[in-house]
Amino acid sequence: MVNYIIRRFLILPFILFGVTVLVFSMIMMLGPYQRLSTYINDPAQLKGQDMDELVSKYGLDDPWYEQYGRWIGGVLQGDFGWSESAGQPVTEAIFSRFPATLELALFAVIPVVMGGIWLGVLSAVHHNQKFDHIIRIVSTVGWSFPTFVFGLMVLMVFYGVLGWFPPGRLGADAAAIVRSAEFIQYTGLNVLDGILNLEFGVVVDSFRHLIGPIVTLAIVWWSYILRITRSSMLETLRKDYIRTARAKGVAEKFVINKHARRNALIPVVTVAGPMVLGLLGGVVIVESVFGYRGIGQYAAQAAQQLDYSGILGVAMYFSFLLILINLIVDVSYAVIDPRIRLE
């Protein structure tokens, strides 16, 4: 396994090189005047200057390989250009929003994965019983429900009617505390930083703003994980080694928990990888519905305002996450099932 991980890390630069070529090809599909927006951070720069002069100044009429060399040099230094939609460099826009997306992803993954696996196993164990039928109906409805519709319903009921879970990331009072000089932002995660600063009002307020997006994400992905776990578990329970274990008199809880469930998790890990990727990449619809200032909301704003630098910066960020999470998923196969060898 160690050799496999080393080989994957050695291949990583070549994969990233391919991604940069693809992303740069997308840039080159734009005209030089459109690409000027990635360099101009103040509209006043356009006053009194000829557009052709600016194109020549930034080398946008040079051969593509020279432009690629300059662009990749900037990327290696963390320079993705200026984001018009955020009003700041793309790198700063992504890094300033990453803690919010990470916090939402961390709190959403736990109920989705753990709850989905637990209920999926129970549903398979009680196959064709009343509990199984109820779970199947609920999961089918949950997976079929459009995310934005469910998010709006959660926002309308729990905030519009009950006033419990407001949109955004922090209320006015908690935000004032976080921005104060006395509050130290160790991680950018409001819940954790609130605990470390002993500001439990910030912790409570952060949770109030997180519950709406978490519930919306959980009901969709929870249904998907549950259905995958149930199907995989039903197939595993029909295997010969499960029948043998039961014939030997092994207790049913050991048959389910030790033999069947672990082997049934391989398909779950396969689908959990893209789910985590989607969460860390920014959940565009959920973050937009709840006004949650994360990477997903930034990607939506960049697309709406034709912010080419922002769109391409998010694409590079998402590509890196995809490569990293695929590596973690592959290694997880061997951890869950020792019979799988990655050498």
From TrEMBL:
Can you say where in the cell this protein is located? Cell membrane
| UniProt-listed PROSITE patterns | ABC_TM1
A GO cellular component annotation in the UniProt record: plasma membrane
The record's annotation in Gene3D superfamilies points to:
MetI-like
UniProt topology in membrane: Multi-pass membrane protein
- Pfam families the UniProt entry points to: BPD_transp_1
Q: What biological-process terms (Gene Ontology) are attached?
A: transmembrane transport
Task: Indicate the transmembrane segments per the record.
Answer: 9-30, 104-125, 137-162, 210-229, 264-286, 314-336
Q: Which residues form the signal peptide?
A: none
Tell me where it mainly resides: membrane
Family annotation (InterPro entries): MetI-like, MetI-like_sf
Coiled-coil region(s): none
Residues covered by the ABC transmembrane type-1 domain: 98-333
Q: Name the protein family.
A: Belongs to the binding-protein-dependent transport system permease family.
Q: Which PANTHER family match?
A: DIPEPTIDE TRANSPORT SYSTEM PERMEASE PROTEIN DPPB-RELATED
What is this protein called in UniProt?
Peptide/nickel transport system permease protein
